[in-house]
Structure formats: structure tokens, C-alpha cells
UniProtKB/TrEMBL annotation:
Gene3D superfamilies: Porin (2.40.160.10). InterPro entries: Gram-neg_bact_OMP, Gram_neg_porin_domain, Porin_dom_sf. Keywords: Cell outer membrane, Ion transport, Membrane, Porin, Signal, Transmembrane, Transmembrane beta strand, Transport. Homotrimer. It is found in: Cell outer membrane. Residues 1-26 form the signal peptide. It comes from Pseudoalteromonas aliena SW19. This is Porin domain-containing protein.
Amino acid sequence: MTKTTHTRILLLSIGCLATFSHTAFATDYTVYGKAEVQIATTDTGIMRYVKEGTQIEAPYSRIGIKGAHKLNEYLTAVFKYEVQVKGFEEDDTQEPFTARNTYLGLKGAFGEVVVGRNDTRFKYSEGKLDNFNETQADIAQVIAGQDRLGDTISYTSNSWHNTQFSFTYAPKDDNKDNKAGYAATFIYGDRNLKNTPYYISLSRVDSLNNIKANRLAGVYKFEQLQLGVLYQHSESVDGTKSGNGYVLSASYTLDKWVPKIQFAKDDSALRQQTDATQWTTGLDYVFDKQTTAYLLYTDLDLDENTDSSVALGLKYKF
């Protein structure tokens, strides 16, 4: 028997075992993730997510498994276990993983309820607004409320006539603010921009991660052009800080090229310690649905400091 034949038999055996384990327990699951590498040069290092100087980063690379197990004709168990993978970077070899969305729950005609670590439904409301999500130009650089919290209960309704309601609740004993907190979001349209070319969200967060805030956000896609807008009023739980935040974003698809621009401003001093303004421009080259190369430049202005960063990156989703 040749080495090639041995290899084919081994691969066939592994495939059969994988098929058996996948179906014997009636569980539908997917292994997924994102591998990303970025070379960034940053001016002063006061910007979040990047350091001063020239660095090789792996911004928010991750791996996870998610799935569903049908319990009966009414209920399905759902789960997700996801970690950020930082082992690519020399500084993070001792702690190569950090927690991301990790939960267990049930779904049915009522919608979906999950318990564990999850994006708050306030963060969920951004949809496709952020053109530079998970980079140094992420709207979380200046806008408060972009939180992923553990020990929460999240409810998301099924979509009804393009309308969806979702809710996050954190019990007092598990909340950082030492009081029960919640976030609630109404969405009209499709936040993924697949079923409709638009969505509008109205959100409220109260006593989660030391903020109270109201948010109105929307995205509209017309052929190759996509526009996004966000307005938010925020204040600290103790009432000592408050202010308004704004985001404007735009992108245009030219075959595989996608030029992008984004403006974000906030004067609540909740995310940064002072008023903050950030301008960002970038260019993506989309090889396919999984692979994107990008170039971005971002500038952050605070009351007494400024910072800028230029980055070249490659992102692969699987």
C-alpha cells in the first residue's frame, strides 16, 4: 500500500469520525475565527489599542465555536465560546487568550435568551455603522458604551416586519456599578444590510459599566454608497460627567476597492478624559468575502494632546 493510499484512508477515516460526531448528538456547530496582522506606526501612544512607535499587531484575532442543539419542536439550545488570540505578538506569549462572547442559552418562537459574556445590546445597536471596527479608529476610541460584559442575560427577539427588540440585564451582585443595570435596543430594518438596505436603532443603557446613555443610529446603503450616522447623549452613573457624541461614516465600493472615511466626536469625557475628536480615512482591497487588505490613517485630538496612527493590515475570516 503506497503512502498516498495511506493518506487517503486516514483522511477518509477522519472525515467519517467528524461526520459521526457532528450528527450523532444532533448538534449543528461551526468553528470560526479571524486572523489579522497589522503594521502600525503611531505618533505619541495616547490612542487606545496601539502603542507609540512602529509595532506589529494582531488586532482582535480570534477563534470560536458556536452551535445549536434542537431539544424538541419548541426549544433549541444555543452556545458560543470565543476567545481573542494574542499569541501572535511577542508581548502576549504568557497570556495568549482573553475572553470574548461566551454564553449558553435557548431559542424558540419567543426569540433567544443567553446567559454569560456578551456584547451589550447597546453595543449591538451599532450594526454596520463603524467603518473601522476593531482597529485603532474604532468608534469605541471616543464613544462610551461599546462594552462586552460578563455575568449578563441577553434577550433578542425574532424579527417581525423588520422590527427587532433586544435587552441586556446585569444583576446587582454581578455588575461593576454595584446596582442592577440594563441596555435595551429597538431596531427597524436589517442591521446586517442583507434583507433591507437600511436600519435604524434606538437604544438606552442604564448603569452598565458606569454609564447612562441614549443612542440613535442608522445606516443606509444605496448601490455602492453606504452612509452611517450616530448621535448619543451620555452621562456617568454618579452624574459628574455628561455630554454628547456623534459619528458620521461613509464608504463607496469600486469593484474590489472600498475607500472609507469616518468622523467621531464626544464631549462627555467618559471614554477619554477630555473632549475627543477623531478623523479617519482608509482604503480596503477586498480579495473575496474572507480576505481583505487595508490601509488606514487616523488622527485623535484631545484637549491637550494629539495622536495619529497609520496602519497597513491583512484580515482573513474563516
